[in-house]
Amino acid sequence: MKTLPKRQSIRRALILVSFLLFPVTIDFFSPYLIVDGASQGVINGSWISFALMFVSALFLGRGWCGWVCPAGGLQEACMAALDKKVRGPWADRVKWLIWSLWILLIAVLVVQAGGYVRVNPFHLIEDNLSPTQPASIYIYYAIKYFMVVGLIVSLSWTVGNRGMCHSACWMAPFLILGRKIRNLFAWPSLRLAAQPEKCTNCMSCVRACPMSLDVNGLVARGSMEHNECILCGTCVDTCAQHVIRYSFSSGR
After folding, report:
1. What are the structural domain ranges in the chain?
2. By the 8 A CB rule, do 171 and 29 touch?
3. pLDDT at 124
4. Residue 127 burial by CB count (10 A; 0-12/13-18/19+): exposed, middle or buried?
């Protein structure tokens, strides 16, 4: 088995732990609970989680996806069984349709509810956390958990590596929009930088990228900006010539 660079070992450990905690945190990433909260004018836990992700993207790009996301941990584990590159841009567009319809539904429900009137991070969660709840509650959570896991695995093995990130993730658009705002105002933030003149076109970065990006092409054009880059640093740690590096800068 190939030994991972230390930074990548740490990163994969972090997202694996995040995935193992997913049965506990699942409701804080729920697209349904934010819809239910909107219908009652409640800012709930998932609303707060998505807002924090958006704010993080203003300074850390899609670092959440590469270093923290529980779905990322499962998807990269799937790569060990089937390393399948995502082909073409079609997959990246599907999530925007899903996200747009979801946001529209939330907006309509909030207007009907008269706006957001209260904050409850544990909306629809607090009662379910009680140990006195009937076994049916835990069966419900188990079914929901394995449905989400099944979706993630199936997309990883059909769409390709990190297929959920590409095609169906309802969190990714928040991070991409935050990144675009960051680029518009060009304030210092975490990003990748490259020195094209050092590149030998060995393509190791392309082979290693978990998001199936043409990293070599990004290096050649002198800009590492890509909506689907999750700042995992795999290309940084794979390149023997040290062409790519992390940078905290304005990008100008």
Report:
1. 6-179, 187-249
2. yes
3. 84
4. exposed
Banded model confidence at residue 6, pLDDT cuts 50, 70, 90: very high
- Which two tokens mark 230? 């999750």
In sequence order, what are the residues at sequence separation of 6 or more whose Cβ sits closer than 8 angstroms to the Cβ of residue 163? 75, 86, 91, 155, 156, 157
By the 8 A CB rule, do 152 and 75 touch? yes
Write out the CATH class of domain 187-249. Answer: alpha beta
Instruction: Extract long-range pairs of 51-58: CB within 8 Å, 24+ residues apart.
Output: 53/171, 53/174, 53/175, 53/178, 54/174, 54/175, 54/177, 54/178, 55/178, 56/175, 56/178, 57/174, 57/175, 57/176, 57/177, 57/178, 57/179, 57/182, 58/178, 58/179, 58/181, 58/182, 58/187, 58/189
Chain segment 67-101, per-residue pLDDT in tens:
999 999 999 999 988 999 998 888 899 999 999 99
| Terminal C-alpha separation, the chain | 40
pLDDT in tens, 192-242: 999 999 999 999 999 999 999 999 999 999 999 999 999 999 999 999 999
| Burial state string for 13-43 with b = 16 or more CB within 10 A and e = fewer than 16 | ebbbebbeebeeebbbbbbebbbebbebebb
pTM here is 0.91
